[in-house]
Every structure is written in structure tokens, then in C-alpha cells.
Design goal:
Elements (H helix, E strand, L loop, with lengths): L7 E5 L5 E8 L4 E6 L13 H6 L2 E6 L15 H14 L5 E6 L3 H10 L4 E7 L5 H4 L8 H12 L1 H17 L1 H10 L3 H9 L2 H13 L4 H12 L13 E6 L7 H10 L3 E6 L10 H11 L2
Parallel strand pairs: 3-4, 3-5, 5-6, 6-7, 7-8
Antiparallel strand pairs: 1-2, 2-4
Helix pairs in contact: 2-3, 5-6, 6-7, 6-10
InterPro entries: AB_hydrolase_1 (IPR000073), AB_hydrolase_fold (IPR029058), AB_hydrolase_sf (IPR050266)
Pfam families: Abhydrolase_1
Organism: Litoribacillus peritrichatus
Length: about 300
């Protein structure tokens, strides 16, 4: 019988910081690296546990700096986050992994793909952000709530930080109100998933609480570095990338997924009709995802 790992673990990074990670699925299975959304944490990948265990997949989910028990960074950067993940893979003696990134987790996934030599075989993006410096140059670049969040975070950082602190306060002291407000921004496909699986509500709240457990400024810094210009272009990422995008996603709209597919040289694009941001919580999609990870 396959066994399941779902306990938090820590490793010490070369600079002395701690990196927390959680594993789900089959502890002896094919490794998959999962990059969490924001606000979010490694805890959210528990929804993959059962299907990935049944399909012989071992999911490794690190918390980015300042989230959960991962040490914070004095200078928060995607470059350091990428190095941390590669150190984790080397510590676990993984030669090749599939990388999955959901929402904000797509950005570190793309950075890992860019800087990988042999460690990453493919990347699977689930409603991922793109490189906004390139997206801003594209026709019809406006990208819904993601664009609004980018404008607030980069042009009015004090306001962006205040918004993150307010979200953190609601998460900590009024989680029910926070979740109600969150669901008001979701379209019907996502609210239907939560209604059908009420335990996902508690999972999302806990995962998002972990993102502000040390400081709400972690949420702000994580968003800010993703919206800034990167030192490379999407066309320089050579490994295979599969892009999934719901056509009713209010957080990461269809325009962003299409932009990724247009700019990445080795991408396959799958537009999901009638889907929002949380389609991957459904078992039917998870089996599809598991099959991709087995390639």
C-alpha cells in the first residue's frame, strides 16, 4: 500500500535560513514540485493528496520566505526563491521534476524553468500570472483584477501594503467575513466548487493565514516582485510548458493565459470553458493533471 506524507518539514539553507515544505501523495512516487498561490501556502496542495497518491506521485510543496515556518528574507527576491527551491530538490536527491504553479505560484515556476539545467522536465501552469512587463506591451493588455492589483502595488506601494495589512487583519480576526468577501469576487464555477466541497473553505482560510503568519508585508512583497520587470523574457524559457486557463477566471483572466501561450516557445494552451480559478480542486481535473505529471 502506498503511504502518505503530510507533515511539515524543515531544511536549513546555505545562508542559515529555514525552508519549510510539506509533502503529499505517494512518498516513494515520482516527484512533483508545487508552487503555491498568494495569499496561500504549501497547505493548499493537500487537495491533490488522494489522486496523486493513487497515481504514484510525490508532491513537494515549499513555503516561500516569510510564509509558515520558512524564514523571511531581508531582500525578498525571485532569484533567491529560485535558489532555495533548487537547494531543496538537491537535498531530496531529485534529478528531474515536473513543476506545477497555481496563480502567483506560476511566476516562481517560470523562474525555475528559466534557470534549470537538468532539474525540471516540464512546467504546468494553472491560471498563472505572466511577465507583466511584456504583457503591458501587448495589444489589449488589460487583465482584470490582476491589472488593478499590479497598478496599486507598483504605483501606490503604501496603499498596496495597507490593503495587504487589512486583508491580514480580516484573515486573522474575522476569517468568515474575509472568506465571504473573497467569494463575492468569484464567479459561479468557483463558488459551486466550494459549496460542493465545504472542507475546501477551511483549507483555503488556513493556507492564506499561513501567508501572513509572520507579517502581512510578506504578501505585499511577494506580489510586488512578481509585478516588476524580470531580467529575462518568456521566449527564453525552453522547457515544455502546459498552460491551463479558465475563461471565467476573475483573478487571472483569459488574456493572461493567452499571453503566456503566445510568448513561451514550447507551450500548449488549454482554455477551459466555463471554469474559474479553482477548477483544479475538482477530482476530474486532478486525474488529468496526474496523467500529465507521469509523462
Amino acid at each position: 500500500m502506498k503511504s502518505t506524507i503530510n507533515t511539515s518539514q524543515l531544511i536549513t539553507l546555505p545562508d542559515g535560513r529555514s525552508l519549510e515544505y510539506i509533502e503529499y501523495g505517494d512518498c516513494s512516487g515520482t516527484p512533483v514540485l508545487y508552487n503555491h498561490g498568494m495569499p496561500g501556502s504549501a497547505f493548499e496542495a493537500q487537495v491533490l493528496n488522494d489522486v496523486f497518491k493513487d497515481n504514484g506521485l510525490r508532491v513537494i510543496c515549499p513555503n516561500r520566505p516569510g510564509i509558515g515556518r520558512s524564514s523571511s528574507l531581508s531582500e525578498y527576491s525571485l532569484s533567491q526563491i529560485t535558489q532555495d527551491c533548487f537547494f531543496l530538490l538537491e537535498s531530496l536527491a531529485f534529478n528531474k521534476v515536473t513543476v506545477i504553479g497555481w496563480s502567483s505560484g506560476g511566476v516562481p515556476s517560470l523562474w525555475q524553468a528559466k534557470h534549470s539545467h537538468t532539474q525540471i522536465s516540464q512546467v504546468i501552469l494553472l491560471s498563472s500570472y505572466s511577465h507583466f512587463a511584456e504583457l503591458d506591451q501587448a495589444p489589449s493588455h488589460f487583465a482584470g483584477q490582476a491589472s488593478v492589483l499590479k497598478q496599486v502595488t507598483t504605483r501606490f506601494p503604501a496603499l498596496g501594503l495597507l490593503a495587504c495589512k487589512m486583508a491580514g487583519y480580516l484573515l486573522k480576526y474575522m476569517p468568515s467575513l474575509y472568506f465571504k468577501l473573497l467569494m463575492q469576487h468569484c464567479h459561479t464555477p468557483d463558488s459551486d466548487i466550494i459549496e460542493a466541497h465545504p472542507h475546501y473553505r477551511d483549507m483555503l482560510i488556513e493556507a492564506q493565514k499561513q501567508s501572513i503568519s509572520q507579517s502581512a508585508s510578506t504578501l505585499f512583497m511577494d506580489l510586488l516582485i512578481q509585478f516588476r520587470e524580470w531580467p529575462f523574457y518568456l521566449k527564453s524559457i525552453e522547457c515544455p510548458v502546459t498552460v491551463f486557463q479558465g475563461d471565467r477566471d476573475p483573478f487571472v483572466p483569459e488574456r493572461i493565459g493567452q499571453h503566456l501561450a503566445d510568448c513561451l516557445p514550447n507551450a500548449q494552451y488549454h482554455l477551459l470553458p466555463g471554469q474559474g480559478h479553482m477548477y483544479w480542486f475538482e477530482k476530474s481535473f486532478q486525474y488529468r493533471l496526474a496523467r500529465l505529471c507521469q509523462i
